[in-house]
From TrEMBL:
InterPro entries: GAF-like_dom_sf, HTH_MetabolicPath_Reg, Tscrpt_reg_IclR_C, Tscrpt_reg_IclR_N, WH-like_DNA-bd_sf, WH_DNA-bd_sf. It comes from the Bacteria. SUPFAM superfamilies: GAF domain-like (SSF55781), Winged helix' DNA-binding domain (SSF46785). It comes from Lentzea tibetensis. SMART domains: HTH_ICLR. This is IclR family transcriptional regulator.
């Protein structure tokens, strides 16, 4: 094979990869489902090309085919997990304060980071009793209903907030709640994500006041009242923020 031929093959392969990335970037958030026609419209690619690329991405587990549409697949969630694993400081700094909250409550404690319209579970300490809400490290939860997601969104940029609010049936309700969360420094989920689970969360902030993570405590609604631990959660998240900024996980007590 001549050098010219090799160059042509390399260029063709690069073009396929670029088009595949264009398809993946068409999704505004992880939970969104798109048909081939809408993907073609958003990417500007011919519908036949979109179909072909979707077949390749589906075979690789990067997208999932639904009834007449597609969504981002589980393999991307695995990649998200690897990305989170690439920031060990977040887990290392957050875990001592999560353990403090667990010892105080014996309820389930989460550390999460925003991943599009979802919350990526970075770390979890299981409570004494099994929670009705299924969650796992590396898994995702909806940002717009969970206390973790609301705490993260409230202290994110307006562009990030709009990217989630745009796809809600009642965006003004969440928008008002995000304003209250920002004032109070904590967010609540009173049976929204699961009718039998209550939760309270607070953001872990960087030096600019933007949320890079959030810590939550959740428990069965029949016996767990978030107001009882609100101050503790707020203080733990604040202490984690200070520890992360200083680079010393044990530098501040919750």
């Amino acid at each position: 094979m001549t050098i010219t031929r090799l160059d042509s093959v390399a260029q063709a392969n690069r073009a396929v990869v670029e088009k595949a990335f264009a398809v993946l970037e068409a999704w505004d958030h992880r939970g969104e489902s798109l048909g081939a026609s809408e993907l073609a419209r958003r990417t500007g690619l011919p519908k036949s090309t979109s179909h072909r690329l979707l077949g390749i991405l589906e075979a690789a587990g990067v997208v999932e085919r639904l009834s007449g549409s597609y969504r981002l697949g589980d393999r991307l969630r695995g990649i998200s997990g690897m990305v989170a694993a690439g920031f060990p400081d977040l887990r290392e700094v957050g875990l001592p304060f999560m353990q403090d909250l667990y010892e105080l409550t014996h309820e389930t404690v989460h550390l999460g980071a925003l991943d599009g319209a979802d919350v990526h579970c970075v770390e979890k300490i299981y409570g004494h009793r099994r929670s009705p809400l299924a969650s796992r490290v590396g898994g995702v939860l909806p940002a717009h209903t969970t206390a973790l997601g609301k705490a993260l969104l409230a202290f994110s940029s307006l562009n990030v907030q709009r990217s989630v609010l745009t796809y809600l049936d009642e965006p003004l309700v969440l928008s008002a709640e995000l304003r209250r969360t920002r004032r109070a420094g904590v967010a609540f989920d009173l049976g929204e994500t699961h009718p039998d689970v209550n939760c309270v969360a607070a953001p872990v902030l960087n030096r600019e006041g933007r949320a890079i993570a959030a810590i939550s405590v959740s428990g069965p609604a029949e016996r767990f009242t978030p107001a009882m631990v609100t101050d503790r959660v707020r203080r733990a998240a604040h202490a984690a923020s200070m520890a992360l900024a200083s680079g010393r996980p044990d530098s501040v007590s919750a």
